[in-house]
């Protein structure tokens, strides 16, 4: 087994429960780690036999454009879609962070991290 990580994917989106968040949006950071059997592509050197991190990045970007009230909902959609589209993946951990959240204090970010196994 092996892991592929995508770190610090930066996206602007309109998630949140506040009207201002829905209208002007916020900056987000997404970190992803997947587990899959990478032994064959490690030998063959063939992209077709591994989990393409471009595909993973596209799933994240597309799901982040779908507005949600809660980060939990966004994270679950990302996990569900990875399992649906990429059969080699056996485990997914995703962390979605809202940068400078409007919570009435000096907070760098708030994050939700979900993990699921096939």
Automatic annotation (TrEMBL):
Its EC number is 4.1.2.25. The keyword Lyase applies. Residues 4-116 form the Dihydroneopterin aldolase/epimerase domain. The keyword Transferase does not apply. It catalyses: 7,8-dihydroneopterin = 6-hydroxymethyl-7,8-dihydropterin + glycolaldehyde. Keywords: Folate biosynthesis, Lyase. Pathway: Cofactor biosynthesis; tetrahydrofolate biosynthesis; 2-amino-4-hydroxy-6-hydroxymethyl-7,8-dihydropteridine diphosphate from 7,8-dihydroneopterin triphosphate: step 3/4. InterPro entries: Dihydroneopterin_aldolase, FolB_dom, GTP-CH-I_C/QueF. GO terms for molecular function: dihydroneopterin aldolase activity. SMART domains: FolB. Pfam families: FolB (PF02152). Catalyzes the conversion of 7,8-dihydroneopterin to 6-hydroxymethyl-7,8-dihydropterin. NCBIfam families: folB, folB_dom. Belongs to the DHNA family. This is 7,8-dihydroneopterin aldolase. The gene is folB.
């Amino acid at each position: 087994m092996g892991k592929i990580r995508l770190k610090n994917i930066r996206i602007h989106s309109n998630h949140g429960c506040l009207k201002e968040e829905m209208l002007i949006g916020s900056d987000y950071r997404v970190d992803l780690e997947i587990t899959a059997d990478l032994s064959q592509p490690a030998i063959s050197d063939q992209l077709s036999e591994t989990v393409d991190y471009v595909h993973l990045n596209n799933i994240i970007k597309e799901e982040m454009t779908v507005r949600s009230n809660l980060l939990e909902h966004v994270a679950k959609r990302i996990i569900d879609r990875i399992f649906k589209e990429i059969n080699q993946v056996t485990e997914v951990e995703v962390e979605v962070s809202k940068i400078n959240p409007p919570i009435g204090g000096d907070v760098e970010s708030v994050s939700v991290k979900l993990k699921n196994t096939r």
